Amino acid sequence: MSNTPAGAEPNENAGLMRCAWCSSDPVYIDYHDTEWGVPSRDPRHLFEMLLLEGFQAGLSWITVLKKRPHYRKVLFNFDPEKLAGISDDYIQTLMQDPGIIRNRLKLNAARQNARAWLAQPDPVDLIWSFVDGQPKINHYQAMQDVPVITPEAQLMSRTLKKAGFNFVGPTICQSYMQAIGCLMDHTTNCHRYPTLARAHT
């Protein structure tokens, strides 16, 4: 998970230990406990997370999570076919919307990434190909042990860039792979670790 303070201690809330990056914010807790690191093969969800990770660049993840419902509203529930066809005028309209991160480069990238996504014969297989189709279960004891970038993320970044995607640098790809469960990086002291580790061992 990006934006994690080095050496952060485990986070405990309601008697449950969580990864150190998870704050006490209910939005963060729900995301950590129900979504982060859970393997996803749903095309719409995978596309949504790819765009959200790009929107996060330079910002905190909690900022993006709190804007997520509004993003779903104005970006057609992350339907790539609809997003691929949005006009420059619509992007200009979005630039006036305080409910999202108003960054023209990121909004243009959302449209371009929708087109690149649709150009793939099987985008789900593409995303999962970087871990040979199965989650990579890691066993990190603390967040400072979790690498910021892995070879899998570097390969994903190079491949997606060649395929026409934008805002897919290796750090973004690393966070993306963690989020969608390609890399299971819940630390061993986190209450989610046993469930997700057992499910794929």
Distance between the termini: 22 Å
Average pLDDT number: 93
> What share of residues is helical?
40-55%
CATH topology of the largest domain: Endonuclease III, domain 1
| Form type | globular
Total domain units: 2
Structural class label: mainly alpha
Could you give me the name of the CATH homologous superfamily of the largest domain?
Answer: Hypothetical protein, domain 2
For the sheet with most strands, the description reads:
2 strands, antiparallel
Radius of gyration from the CA trace?
A: 17 Å
Low-confidence parts lasting 5 or more residues at pLDDT below 50?
Answer: 2-9
Count every helix, treating DSSP H or I runs of 4 or more residues as helices. 10
In CATH, what is the class of the largest domain? Mainly Alpha
Order of strands, widest sheet:
1-2
Q: How large is the share of residues in beta strands? A: under 5%
SSE string, helix = H, strand = E?
EEHHHHHHHEHHEH
